Amino acid sequence: MGVFDIATRTAGRARYAAAQGLRSAWYGAQMSAARRRASGFDRPGEPAFQPTRGQPNLAVLRRAYFELFIKDRLNVEAGLYPAPSDVRLKDLPKALRSARAFREDVEDVDRRRLERNGTEVRQQVTDEHNRYPAYYLQNFHYQSGGWFTEDSADIYDTQVEALFTGTADAMRRAVLAEISRELRGRDQRGVSLLDVACGNGRFLSQVMQVYPRLMASGLDLSPTYTDAARTRLKPWKQVEILHEAAEAMPVEDNSLDMVVSIFLFHELPPRVREKVLAEIRRVLKPGGLFILADSAQFGDYSDLDGLLEYFPHGFHEPYYKSYLSWDAVQACDLTGLVPETQSLAFLTKISTFRRSS
């Protein structure tokens, strides 16, 4: 490597560190402000929560945090995707609006948490055709509107980034790295990909920025999040967004080269997880790739098991406890999805599976 190449790489790393450091500080400050406005982790009159698996080791947490960004930058240098460019002056007005909305929502979120009211949305959503199953009619994270309002779709990215101190996009990019590895040597125009539970389309839009001719689609059960995804993905005319359930996809058998699912399975009851896996196996072509990204589980970081116990206690996540001990590798293997790789990206675990032929 020549002097110019070394200088270019060093400058790139410096820009990356500055941008991601600023981003983490921005979202970390928002979460700190939210905690100050809230009523504290433990509810009044209740004993302090004590995890059964011990207090988390914060040194391990910090190390995993920095390793995430190291791996992210190395993926950029390996050519798996371009350096993120989401810290731009022109985006400041939107960032300020999102921060204001996040701050203003804190009191309502805290009220639901203190009341343990995680199903308020059931009194707010009209579901005459029984389209939405009971497990979905929840105020996950005690968020306002559940998955059913435009405000929820608008504020979601800020909520997740604040919760994870600005690491959510970097964790998702570990999935983009797997997509890039799968696409090596292939014409993207002939490759089909489905993002299951695509939400407001943030990740899928990042995929399309790297692979603009990919035959991609997204599926989500939220009416407002799918509307937001359609707006976000409008620049790519071939992208289709489906407002449907993951356990009953309107997709042909053996039709997809790749299926991606990010942060879905921990919000599904065990019986529904199995149905979704069966659907993913059905729609994949023989030899097709399934990329599963979701929360770390018990044993992934033994010194952080206690941290994982805190999450369902402080947030409305009714299926998270069962997810923590769920054996995804066994469940996929039984479905006909053969395990290939597994890695950690901070608090996210990325697993890849190949549909058997």
Give the helices and strands, then pairings.
Blueprint: H1 3-37, H2 58-77, H3 92-115, H4 150-163, H5 168-183, E1 192-196, H6 202-210, E2 215-220, H7 223-232, E3 240-243, E4 256-262, H8 270-283, E5 284-295, H9 305-314, H10 320-324, H11 328-335, E6 337-345, E7 348-355
Parallel strand pairs: 1-2, 1-4, 2-3, 4-5
Antiparallel strand pairs: 5-7, 6-7
Structure, explained:
The protein is of the alpha/beta class. It has a single domain, classed as Rossmann fold. It is built from eleven helices and seven strands. A seven-stranded mixed sheet has the order 3-2-1-4-5-7-6, with helices on both faces. The longest helix has 35 residues, at 3-37. It is globular. 36% of the residues are buried. The mean pLDDT is 95.
Keywords:
357 residues; alpha/beta; Rossmann fold; seven-stranded mixed beta sheet; 14% strand
- Can you tell me the CATH class? Alpha Beta
The secondary-structure class comes to alpha/beta
Q: Please give the alpha-carbon distance between the first and last residues.
A: 43 Å
Could you describe the largest sheet, including whether it forms a barrel? 7 strands, mixed
How many structural units, i.e. domains? Answer: 1
As a percent range, the share of strand residues is: 5-15%
Instruction: Write down how many β-strands occur, each being a DSSP E stretch of 2 or more residues.
Output: 7
Quick gist of this model?
It is built from eleven helices and seven strands. With 357 residues, the chain is an alpha/beta fold.
